[in-house]
Write a structure and sequence with these properties.
Blueprint lengths: L2 E3 L2 E5 L2 E3 L2 H11 L13 H18 L62 E3 L17 E3 L2
Parallel strand pairs: 4-5
Antiparallel strand pairs: 1-2, 2-3
Length: 148
């Protein structure tokens, strides 16, 4: 997971994003015009592989001169009820239309994630950072949240 220090967000050794506006600009420049196809999640190994590819994609954002690696996580429309995304860096991930009822995002980074029309009933968002996250139409009833 990312580490935080006085210089900004540490993604990998020697890759630092000094401020959120720089990160936003890089995401906007890398986001595809055609949304990626949703992934297929059969088990926890599939989920971990998607998160690994997403981490590679995020690290690519911190080195724009290099080719984009990995792939932005697109969970759009999936039933992920009760799954744990705790302590993962899923900034910019697409959870639109997902059933995330009872899912745990405890201590995760979800800046700029898309939760449009997602079911987040009873989700655990304690310690989660959601700067710029999109929650239009999301069902947040019973969602537990506390500042990160």
């Amino acid at each position: 997971m990312a580490k935080f220090d006085g210089n900004g967000l540490q993604l990998e050794p020697n890759h630092v994003l000094p401020n959120i506006s720089e990160f936003t600009d890089k995401i906007n420049s890398m986001v595809q015009l055609t949304p990626p196809e949703p992934v297929k999640i059969g088990d926890e190994d599939d989920l971990l592989e998607v998160i690994k590819l997403h981490a590679q994609w995020l690290n690519s954002l911190s080195a724009p001169a290099l080719p984009v690696q990995g792939k932005r996580a697109c969970f759009r429309g999936l039933n992920l009820a009760g799954m744990s995304f705790a302590e993962f860096d899923l900034r910019g991930a697409d959870f639109s239309g997902c059933n995330l009822e009872g899912a745990s995002f405890k201590d995760s980074l979800l800046d700029f994630a898309d939760f449009t029309n997602a079911n987040l009933r009873g989700a655990d968002m304690r310690g989660t950072r959601l700067t710029g996250a999109i929650t239009v139409g999301a069902d947040l009833e019973g969602c537990v949240a506390a500042p990160a």
